[in-house]
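Reply to dn_fold:

You asked what the input looked like. This is it:
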Amino acid sequence: MAVEEDVKLIGSWASPYVARARIALNLKGIPYEFLQEVLGKKSDLLLKSNPVHKKIPVLIHAGKPICESLIIVEYIDEVYPPIRIFLGDADEESKKGAKDQMFAALLQLEEAFVESSKGKSFFGGDNIGFVDIALGSYIAWLKGMDKIAGIKFLDEEKVPRLVEEA
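and this is what came back:
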């Protein structure tokens, strides 16, 4: 399957599971169309793409749906080559676009964390859960980007709660 084919992500900006898929896409520098679902309604495309669970996120690559956020992340990691966009292989415009998308995704993740953690250390409050574990592997990578490429994704001013708990 060619990696340059059309990529769409069905989701909601407020979902931490969708944020996980968006972070993976943005880290890889993959252009995609974000198809925002309306809260309380399920689009025909969502129902067609995920007929069993009828849940977001759904990644559609070359017309084929991939469901469940961790499966989407694994798929993205396997289908797309390792990230090079921030390490010199891409033009400045592509790098800027990827950074902007990544910062936007982190701001969404910060908002979701603040709302769901209620001031505590984890997405679920006092107890570590699935989202915290799944996100943990990306935090180290984000910290490394500061040293490797000079890009500070975990900026205390922009995403203070994520930095605090990282």
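Strands lie at 7-11, 33-36, 58-61, 64-67.
Hope that clears it up.
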